[in-house]
Give the backbone structure.
Amino acid sequence: MRAVGRGISAVAALAIGGSVIMTAPSLAMAAPVEGNIVINEIESSGGIPGDWIEFYNQSAESVDLSGYIVKDDDDDHQYVIPAGTTVAAGGYLVLDELNGSEGHFDFGLGNGDSVRLFAPDGTTLVTEQTYPGHASTTYGLNSAGEFVETAVPSKGTMNNFTGIVINEVNYDDAFSGSPDAVELYNAGSASVAIGGWSLHDDKDRPGEGDIPAGTELAPGEYFVMTGDDVDFTFGLGKGDQVRLKDASGNVVEAMAYENTSPTMIFARCPDGIGTWQHATELTLGAANNCDPLETAEAALVLNEIDSGPADWLEFFNPGGEALDISGYEIRDNADDHRWRFPAGSSIQAGEYLLVEASTMGLIYNDQTQGWDENTFEAAIGIGSGDSIRVYDAEGTLIQEHSWTEHAAIDGDAALATLGRCPDATGEFALAHPTPGAANECVTPAVAINEIESNGGTPGDWVEIINIGDTPVDISGWTVMDNDPIGHANDVTPLEQGTILEPGALFVFEELRDFDFGLGNGDTATVRDAAGQTVDEHVYDAHAAGTLSRCPDGTGEFVDTEVSTKGQLNACGNPVVLNEVESSDADGGDDWIELYNPRLEEALDVSGLVIRDNDDSHSYEIPAGTSIAAGEYLVITESEFGFGLGGNDSVRIFEGENIVEETSWSGHAEHTWGRCPSATGNFAATSAATPGALNSCPGIPAVEAWTGADEVTVLDPEAMFLEDSSGLDFHDGSLWAVDNGTGMIWKLDAALDGSVSFAEGWEDGKRVRFQKDAADASAAGPDAEGITLDGSGIVYLAVERDNSAKGVNFNTVLAVDPTKAGPDIVADSEWDLTESLPSVSANMGIEAIEWVPNSVVEGAIVDANTGSPFDASVYPDAAAGGVFFVALEDNGHVYAYVLNEDGSAVQIADLDPKIGGAMGLDYDSVLGVLWVEADDGYNGRLAQLTFNGTSEPEIVHIDRPASMPNLNNEGFATSPAEYCVDGQRPAWWFADGETPAALRTAPLDCVVEDDDEANAGDDANGDDSASGDDSASGDDNGTATAGGNGSDTGDDAAEDGKSHDGKPNADDKGGLAQTGAEGLTWILIAGGVLIAAGLVLFFVRRKGNVTDASADE
């Protein structure tokens, strides 16, 4: 890539050296000036260092401008271009206004002026440009030949009319430890759509560096493109070009460089408008730094050692000046083996100096006590187990390194040396031989083996494996995603002494080792203690299971259905070993239980081999054996033919490979099984459940969805954006929020669950932080959940600011949705971050639900008082209710009182025992708080029934059988007036789906008791659809309609239907007023109470149902 055109090289010389006239050797044939040289750009006000004029040679040959004269509109103002000045083909010439002794012409350009170029005779006009007044930037020649105002100054480079500039280039990772990268910057005043643009080096690279569609760059914003197959697939050479093309293939920005930067980084300083300079440090995504580098002191650094087969040493001088090394001495591990640099020896700044076996110097003669001239090998033969020690001229030991055997790769010592990694600064490690050049270190035989980016426990993780045959010290190693700048401070290096043995696995855990989440399309990079990349994997989207190498350590990454964190990958059959009985209490057979994790198809397990810890005990599953989708297969001791011991194992083989295994010490009291069932680690269960979901201590049994299995997609054509999240139902409308933008929508909901945008809500409204009120370009809140209070105010659960995605920021925003859009600013904000457990940025609050005080009072225990919740304790509370938020990280639900002054009081911490909580909904019909999990926990739901204690009753519910296992992050139920034929709609909202983000399915209005249940045993009294008259008749605290004893006077839900299929709150049928209304209502009330008593005998809330089958 070093074959850079002559003109482009001149550009680089200008940009790095400052404002100078560029000269090039004269060619035998020079093109004429006329028609080839144009006035390309003019700076008349505010330039650096002052006014300047840029000429461009548009011909294919150099042009000699010696003696040509430059004037403005005053003939008395003239500047003669010096003899010998040529402009290379495609090159630029910049003339600066004289500033002291620096610059060229001694006149300024006015506010409305001309620039004219004359032949040496002073009268023949070659070309001119006139401009009407000072530009806010500069004036430049566009592709149509018009002289117009530019978007940003582009002194010495091609004119820029978009505002998008190449701002920083990292072309070698030797200094920064980071891959090649190019930073773009919008130096203009308007956002620019750069989707479809592309990056290239000195060659056209179609498809190798395309910017994703839809990408926009706001003013003052950076956009970083990373090499190593992340954003572009080609490498940047030590002397290359970087070119940016628009979607039509036109070059809109370009720069060229030579390998002159000591940091291997070039940057514009100041950002966007400055000239290209050697950068001091890599600042991708942030302001550039071109401060002069601190010059290191001159030193003799032992940098590389070859102990065989060719003995040589390499030294390096990192300083800014030469170092006299006369009399410096080298010894091996014996004090009588001594070799000195002779008088007059020196090492230049930045020089690599070799001492080879034949290098002449002075060797110590222990017989004469003197120094004789001789070769290095005459004094020292570098051994397989040896040392090299270096002394200065005063005899002081300044450095040394020892080893126990020759460096070798695959047993070949000729292929390896010991070198500092990184070059010149790091510790010694195995390296490829590079005598006289920067070290090329051998990457440790460690590979990324498995990646969990969505739904892991407790969060995301990256697993590595040692595929070599020697231990690897991984002390100080870190893991990184595709934002190495933004997350630079979000990693914790591994402790000293962390060793990875051959074949061993190690897992980097979110929250412990890194504080960011891995995204839906991201990069996982493992770095050593010096920041060098050991292994890296780029993926396009979350895996359905995990991303695993198959075979382990060496294979390609595939999406495996079964997570095997800290274990060898489940590369073969995805069958799950789920439960083991090794000592039946009733003396029955031992047995093992297998589970099919596929939820839509059967799994063939024919030919799998089952063994315990004795290879002679072996059983092959017969041909034709399969497990139905989501079902179990139990194999007994009578079938597999051997018993399981108290200290034993079960291993399942596919061919020679183990696909599942578990070991235990001592018989379990019940069984040994995965908790949670199918997905968790093995532990002692609370009961044997052959052929069914495991019974785990503290985890409720799972019941079937209580409604018809009729799942309907409501948006077969896209209605929402890509980051669908929370849902809430309020007053006949379904509300939805998008977490990527903070956009909210209001939808009219019909009795059958179908929805349509409410009038004026087709485009939604974007909610903004108060701090961003004046900044429409701000990224906005990562709003995960939505709820409305009784008055219709919207509250959003926010887990971070999208402009700082690496920082957790658990916040509640309140906003009046009736305000005019498209953007609406939060009216109130509550920061809950410090009151919640410390979590990674993307594992914060995912949902919020407002529940009126009339429901919560006396129903939960206030942790601050130790007594049942009493709203009067909090006179400054907002909204007349309690706000429940769900934390994804631990799956807990936290109850808050939000005060009018922006303070918040946490009153309860509730564990629904569901894993990761993603959605919340208070169901006024059943009197329960629903908690929703996503696909990481199979879409399970929990019902919490408040019972006046600190531990509500918990029931777990499966999603509808035909509901796909989606990343659902929103859940809402409808109130009693939506009941038709005993069922009402519930809704789910899936993140990452467009279309088909919103689904509905029927949910029972009431749940019939079994024969053994106590119909009247309800700690909350009866406020379900069977006849309560509480203020919480729907899930927002408003009175219900539908003949349930509410104060609407509506005797039947059917009578209250509007013509569009929605309940009509204004259609209030009832008795005519005759003067006897009081007696009439007394009689009616009496009848209602009698009816309610009868209903209570047969009906109770779902939260108290006891499944008789679970008791057997």
User: Anything to note?
Assistant: The mean pLDDT is 86.
